[in-house]
Each structure stands twice: as structure tokens, then as C-alpha cells.
Amino acid sequence: MSKRSKLIFLLLIILSVPACIFNSGYQEKNGTYVYVLSYEGTTRDNPIEGIDPESFVILDKHGFAKDKLRVYYEGYGIIDSDPNTFEVISDPYGKDNSHVYYKFNVITDADPATFEVLDSQWARDVKDVYSEYIPLDACDPASFVILQQGWEKDDQCVYRNRLRIPDADPASFVVLNFSFAKDKNHVYSNDGSTVEGADPATFKVSSACYACGRDKNGCYAQNKKVNCPEP
């Protein structure tokens, strides 16, 4: 195949791929603004209710915008938002002088002055840690860290599925994989429960399955002891 033919073939492939959500966002149309949704070749204009077109400002093409009346996320007005003091922290997080927002949601009791984003799911302030807009009731927000495979901890507590793991020891806590973690005292399964009878000193993830483990006492599937497979 010639170079020209290869280029034409590549262009045809690109043109044949359906348009997805990449073109979604704010657009100016007929003297006002709409939020356009484009998905798999179809496009829909969503009117923005109560907009003031003359003062409308796009802060993030795909997320936040504001006018003199309110703040918007994906074209929807955020109740009680203050456009005069609003700023984008990192999409989908924003704040004004009184509140912190995750998309359309007010993060209850979050402190705008100390709020910081850790990643697309986690954030914290001086008072707590937040999973999206849900407070974690963290033991020590200042030392909170995101571990591998969906486990988290701070200097006082360990967390799984937005819940504190009772009696876990943060200093010795080690993530083994998505299904297992351990500290000096216990082995923990995916739901944060203790794997009864498991020995943390010798426990290792088994090759039998992703949610299988083995130690000097036997074999485990999730948080239950099972018969070991034949060699």
C-alpha cells in the first residue's frame, strides 16, 4: 500500500468513528448559551434556564460557568451559589466564599478556605476528607493518603469503601491487591472485614484466583477459609 493510500485509509477510519461526548460543552447560539451534548453521532442542545447571556462566562468548557445570577455545572444552576466569589478548584470541584461544590452538589460543612483536591474522587480540608461530596469522618485529615487498589489511610485509621476499618493499624498496613490487605495483627478482605484465622506474617495472595490467599494455616477465598486446591 502506498503512503497516500495509507493516509486515505487512516482518514476513513477516523471519519467512521462515532462522535462521543468530546464535543459536549457550552456553546453560544442565537444570542444566548446552551449546553450541547454530543454522543455517538447525535447532538442535543440543552437550554440553560434563567441565564443572563450578557454576563455569562464559561469557566470550564465542559463543566462550570456563571453569570451575575448564579453558577452552573453542565448547564444546570447551582442553588445558593455566589457567582461573585466563585472559582474553579479543579473540575468537578469549585468553591465560593460560603460553600464548596462537587458538580451540582454542595459539600456539607466543607471549609472553602482550606479545601484542596487530592484526585478526581478525593479531597480534604482542615476538618475532614471527602469522597466526591460525601464526608469520610476521617480520624486525621492532614495525614490522609490514597493507597493502591482503593484502600486509604491516615496516621490514625485505615479506610475501605468510605468506611473506617475497626482496629486496623495504619503504621504496619500494607495493600496486597484489590481483594486483600494486612497489618501486623490482621488480614483484611475487599469489604474491609477481617479474614478470620488468617496469619498476617505468612499470608500471601494466591495464584489460584484474584480473591484467593494462603498462609501457614490454610487457604482463603475473600474473607472465608476454604479447602486448599490440589497441587
Most strands sheet: 4 strands, antiparallel
Low-confidence stretches: 2-21
Give the oligomeric state.
single chain
Task: Give the integer mean of the pLDDT values.
Answer: 90
Number of domains: 2
SS-derived structural category: mainly beta
Distance between the termini: 53 Å
Q: Give the beta-strand count.
A: 26
Radius of gyration, whole Å: 25 Å
Strand content: 35-45%
SSE run: HEEEEEEEEEEEEEEEEEEEEEEEEEE
Share of helical residues: under 10%
Count of individual helical segments: 1
What gross morphology would you assign? elongated
In spatial order, strands of the major sheet run: 4-5-6-7
Describe what this molecule looks like in 3D.
The protein has 231 residues and is mainly beta. The chain folds into two domains: 21-135, no CATH class; 141-226, no CATH class. Helix content is 6%, strand content 36%. The strands form seven sheets. Strands 4-5-6-7 form a four-stranded antiparallel sheet, with no helix packed on it. The chain has a four-stranded antiparallel sheet with strand order 8-9-10-11, with no helix packed on it. A hairpin with a 5-residue loop joins strand 4 and strand 5. The radius of gyration is 25 Å and the shape is elongated. Residues 2-21 have low confidence and may be disordered.
